Amino acid sequence: MQEKINKLFNVKEIELFKSLIGKKFEKVRHDKFDFSNTSYRRVTLFVDGGTYELINDIEEIDFMWDDYGDEAVAVFKFEKTNDMGIDYNYGIDNYPKQIENPINEVIQDIIIIEDNVKAFDKVTNNFVSEYDYVKGVIVVLDGFSYCFTRDIWFSEEIRINKGENPQAKIGNIDDDWEWGEDRYSVNSRTFKKLN
Description:
single chain, 195 residues, mainly beta, 7-stranded mixed sheet, 1 helix, 12 strands
């Protein structure tokens, strides 16, 4: 079991986000919202002629509980990529299909939502492990924002909310964590503005 696990965006990813501020957010590509406002594992952002992907992939990590060993957790990544066009066969069992929504607004700011979880032994109150991870990303536009989050730390789904205060729909960090008889945690959430 690792004492400290850091799955925050790296310096290169943060700089890439910062480079988008002040540029036009042309459109966003995601899965169709047939059953919920989620996209499986990725969302594609088109900004000033560039193509960027917010990816939410699973990684095996030597996690916060020593009884079980490795745990599959979802980890956000952000990268510049080439536009491959709408992938009509993307998703689980060739579903859901992707769609594009035009935006055409200048990005005012980007906010990274970072969660921190410190696990403790319930009997001794001794520190066990700490986990830092990205809960989501908010793209701030003029008068409204797009918010891309995962519901829970192991989910590959990216929830997409749009509006004046979409972060109000994220939920409480304490609700993301259910501990057994031997552990408890102290949790905190930070909204890190990049502008």
